[in-house]
Amino acid sequence: MLSSWRLFKLYIYAWWEGYDADELAAFYEKQSQPAGPIVEEEAEKQITIPPLAPWETARIRIVQLIWGAGWDKPGGPEHVLRLVKPFSLDPSKSIMEFGAGLGGGARAIAHDCAVWVTALEGDAELTKGGKNLSVLAGLDRKAEMQLHVPADFRPGSKHFDCILSAESLFAYPGKYDLLAQFQETLKVQGQMSITDFVLAPDASPEDERLRGIDDRPVELWRVDQYESRFRELNLDLRITEDITEQYRKLILAGLANFAHGDELTLATARAYPAAVAAELDKWTARLTALDAGLLQVVRLFVIKKGGAKLMSDW
Q: Does pLDDT of 51 surpass 70?
């Protein structure tokens, strides 16, 4: 009989390779039956899993196993630092990150660019986790995590030099008004970098294959909706880049690292199967929609117009 350890690794492998896990497990069970008397398999190695911290949840533990310590989405520091490179950040500039998740991006920016980051996240669980991770990193002030409450969001006029939002606006139902708030809080000549999941030109938002891409209601825009709203807000769209293939590789890299994790990774995953299933299901649905040509991932770079000469294209 297959041990639960080997069975779990088999299920991860089956998911990764696109096989039906139950059928694959039954096949291996049949092939592994000895010809003579059944001999019990050697006892599994016992792995001690560190207990959850008071601020931690199973979801927070699992997403970090998949995407990296301090992260709840693909890419890690390299992805985020590429997104903010056009900002030419220095200690004199202020930046807001919207949809900060566990704050990995905010901490990477604060550490690498020596700036103070206001990191906003609408998920209370992730915000609490991100606050504690920033404290542990000694960056609780430079990468300040705040819970975003739409009704209370008043960032102030001409307050920030830069705004970053990475793969978060697609699940925000009030983008039309939110972008106006971003425009208001940007200083003249302020810069904004957005990456987001968008509907492909010919895709229907009612397509069944889009179900499950998030556990929250989503409001998927097309690129032309962003373009139209930026014009209304007198924001100069300088870059529209399709980064679907690059982002797809980031997703696959994170999932591959998890699928080939060490014994502690697998033991932790076995301890929290519901959290593992929820995360894998969500990203499988996103990959399916990307591969079907329903979704794209785009990078948008805009500048708030003013009297001064605009920056050249990056």
A: yes
Rounded Cα distance between 230 and 236, Å, is 7
Task: Tell me the C-alpha distance between 42 and 39, whole Å.
Answer: 9
**pLDDT at residue number 132:** 98
- Other Cβ atoms less than 10 A from the Cβ of 123: the count is 20
Please compute the mean of the pLDDT values over residues 47-61 and round it to a whole number: 95
Residue 241, beta-bridge partner list: 299
Query: Helix count (H) and strand count (E) of the chain?
Result: 11, 7
CA distances from 308 to 160, 172, 190, 219 (A): 17, 32, 11, 35
Segments in the chain forming alpha helices (H): 4-17, 21-32, 58-67, 76-84, 104-113, 124-136, 175-185, 223-232, 244-259, 263-271, 273-291
As annotated, the residues of the chain forming the CATH 3.40.50.150 domain(s) are 58-248+292-304
| CA of residue 226 relative to chain centroid, distance | 20
**In the prediction, which pLDDT does 11 show?**
56
Contacting residues for 124 by C-beta, under 8 A, at least 6 apart: 147
4: confidence class by pLDDT, cuts 50, 70, 90:
very low
**Could you tell me the maximum CA-CA distance found in the chain, to the nearest angstrom?**
86
Beta strands 116-121 and 143-147: pairing type?
A: parallel
CATH number given to 58-248+292-304: 3.40.50.150
In Å, how far are 13, 16, 38, 49, 107 from 10, measured between CA atoms?
5, 10, 21, 21, 36
Give the integer Cα–Cα distance in Å for 159 and 139.
Answer: 21
Q: Which tops the pLDDT comparison, 45 or 102?
A: 102
Distances in Å between the Cα of 132 and the Cα atoms of 72, 91, 126, 128 are 14, 24, 10, 6
**Cβ neighbours of 111 (radius 10 Å):** 17
> What is the percentage of the chain residues whose pLDDT exceeds 70?
83
Whole-structure pTM value: 0.85
- The DSSP string of 111-137 is HHH--EEEEEES-HHHHHHHHHHHHHT
**Residue 144, SS3?**
strand
